[in-house]
Amino acid sequence: MTTRQDLKARDIMHRDAQCIPAHETLDRAAQVMRQLDVGALPICDNDRLSGIITDRDIVIRCVAEGHDPGKVRAADLAQGTPRWIDADADVRDVLDSMEQHQVKRLPVIDNGRLVGIISESDLARHLTDQQIAEFVGKVFTPHR
């Protein structure tokens, strides 16, 4: 399927992305991930995006370091400024952002609120095979 040049982030995003509150524990985040069958959750603090947490973050940055996921809060793993894209950004901007920052999931914001998230599967439904190959080559290859 070829990408139409007029596609916007809102056209390809997965709607109804669920946030985990910043104060929530990592064991609860893992339960929500299981329930939703997702590998990442946006972290929200007072309805504002403050980060994103992945199942890998919980395992590597909490469990493997000997911390109790029942005591570590989602906010404790949210580092730096979260990457996001405006809902009206075009698909090329989405790809550029994901490639530049080497992220596999990108929250979508509209009027300051989280409205969705874009993942590799969302891209695969809307991009050509060549575009997907370029994306994978850039995102999954570490910068040197």
Automatic annotation (TrEMBL):
Keyword Lipid metabolism appears in the UniProt entry: no
UniProt-listed InterPro entries: CBS_dom, CBS_dom_sf, Diverse_CBS-Domain
Pfam name, any one: CBS
Superkingdom of origin: Bacteria
Domain CBS: 13-69, 77-134
Keyword entries, A-Z: CBS domain
SMART domains according to UniProt: CBS (SM00116)
Protein name as it appears in the record: CBS domain-containing protein
